[in-house]
Amino acid sequence: MTETLGLTPSQTVGPYLTLGLLDTSPVTSFIVPADDPRAIVVRGRLLDGQGEPVPDGMIEFWQANDAGRYAHPADLREDVLLEDGFWGFGRSGTVDDGWYEIVTLKPGQVPGPDGRLQAPHIVVGVFARGLLKRLATRLYFPDEEEANAADPVLDGLGESERATLVAQAENGGLRFDVRLQGEGQTAFFLL
Amino acid sequence: MGPTSPSSTRAQDSDRGVDPPYYFEDYVGTRLRSPREPLIVIPQTLSEQTGPVFGDRRLGELDHDLTRQHAGEPLGERIIVSGRVLGSDGKPLREQLVEIWQANAAGRYAHTVDNHDAPLDPNFSGGGRCLTGDDGEYGFVTIKPGAYPWPNHPNAWRPNHIHFSVFGRAFTERLVTQMYFPGDPLFEFDPIFNSVRDERARERLISRFDLGLTKPDWALGYRFDIVVGGRDSTPFEEPHDD
Fold first, then answer.
1. B44 inside domain
2. Which of A98, A6, A115 has the alpha carbon at shortest distance from A52?
3. Nearest CA among B40, B36, B25 for reference residue A182
4. Which residue of B50, B113, B193 is in closest CB contact with A74?
5. A129 contacts in B (CB within 8 Å)?
6. Residues 112-151, chain A: which have Cβ within 8 Å of B?
7. Whole domain around residue B124: which residue ranges?
8. How many domains does chain B have?
9. Interface test with A, best of B162, B174, B176 (most A CBs within 10 A)
10. Do B228 and A7 touch (CB under 8 A)?
11. Does the distance separating the beta carbons of A121 and B127 come in below 8 Å?
12. What is the value of ipTM here, to two decimals?
């Protein structure tokens, strides 16, 4: 019989997460260097149920490269190019009055559950004091209307929920706010 | 809800069978930060079944030793904290990034927002990281963190703890947690510890004193294994040892 171990429960990151996760971390907010011609700056605010900024949180991005390949052994599609040095992971604190900023590139399309391609998206993890476990959501791109309309995840959402997942073009980059609670709450996922 | 009626399945809360709820009344910080709309159940795609792989990414040589990051040694009780990062199937996870952070021996974080009236230690920053070895083993040298008050309720104190962050094999397995020390008298009063409702799951947050890990004439050893897994790896009936 296979041994099954009890999982370790989640606990909050608390207010001092910068000490372990940001200050001297090898994980940075640059998924690609700022001078990469493909670089996009994604900025946004983490907001609580009263619309107040959450200055003790962290946003993590996980994504495929621009060809749509994940730097992970479970992505077996050898025919989709994965360049050396692409990792696809970055994080930013929200210490600047709730603002985070991550420099990345627009990922390519990756397959969905039924073999259909998903619209380009970034998988987003949200952590903060007061969050006893991570929240998971996705960022979609505003210039991908057609792909977004055919996306198997967006497909199951209501209009207003869907709107919370599509970033907005702003100042040459993208704006993506995360609202934890209340009016316009971000759609969060059970994975 | 918009005009399109949503077809995805909804869930009141995400729970791998062991996690605290998003909203836990006794922990005041959850009140304005817990989502109130039901969670949307989405299919697991390649995006969720993958996650950052650290491989042989180099870390600082002393990143795992929080007592040697400054000119002098920090004050407090030197300890060794070690354990394994495992999948729920018992498989050791190698080359996992393990990140920790903690208060100093006096119960003060070296952080601008911590205004607890306890001394900072110029020789202690309180952050560390390491990669697991082939058998999933990690190890840190640090000092035992102090208890400290927090404004959650009158006379609220956090039990001694070290924050841990691990990634698992996929985005679904990402875990941030806290490690506690055996026999802490503050357990019964701490809403964060007690937000984990299952008693046996709660006990898995408590490290074990380990004489074998203890280094003679130098430091006590505490063992803390971390088991990661997504929702689909949750056993509803856990096997008992007894």
1. no
2. A98
3. B36
4. B50
5. 29, 33
6. 112-113, 118, 121, 123, 125, 127-136, 138
7. 52-230
8. 1
9. B176
10. yes
11. no
12. 0.96
Give the CATH number, domain containing residue B195.
2.60.130.10
In a domain, B28, yes or no: no
B2 touches chain A (CB under 8 A): yes
C-alpha span between B80 and B9 (Å, rounded): 46
- Both structure tokens of B129: 């990281």
C-alpha distances in Å from residue A21, one per residue of A16, A128, A129, B50: 9, 12, 14, 20
Query: Tens digits of per-residue pLDDT, B96-127?
Result: 999 999 999 999 999 999 999 999 999 999 99
**Best B7, B32, B177, B187 residue to mutate vs chain A (most A CBs within 10 Å):** B32
B207 part of a folded domain: yes
- Provide CB contacts within 8 A for A76, sequence distance 6+: none
Mean pLDDT score, A54-81: 96
Which sequence positions of B are flagged as catalytic?
109, 148, 158, 161, 163
pLDDT in tens, B124-162: 999 999 999 999 999 999 999 999 999 999 999 999 999
Whole-prediction pTM: 0.95
Instruction: Give the distance from CA B109 to its chain's centroid.
Output: 16
Minimal-distance CA residue of chain A relative to B7: A156
Residue recorded with tokens 């856990």: B238
Instruction: Decide if B150 contacts B175 (C-beta within 8 A).
Output: no
Residue B8 inside a domain? The answer is: no
Chain A neighbours among B 134-153 (CB < 8 Å)? none
Q: What CATH number is given for A18-179 in this structure?
A: 2.60.130.10
**What is the distance of C-alpha A61 from the center of its chain?**
4
Ramachandran region, residue A68 (left: φ > 0; alpha: ψ -120 to 50; beta: rest): left
> Which is nearest to B157 in space by CA: B182, B192, B181?
B192
Residues of A within 8 A of B103 (CB-CB) are: 16
Residue A136 backbone dihedrals phi, psi, to 5 degrees: -120, 135
Joined tokens for residue A11: 């606990």
Does residue A84 come out as left (phi exceeding 0), alpha (psi in the -120 to 50 range) or beta?
beta
Residue A127's alpha-carbon distances to A64, A177, B213, in angstroms, are 21, 14, 33
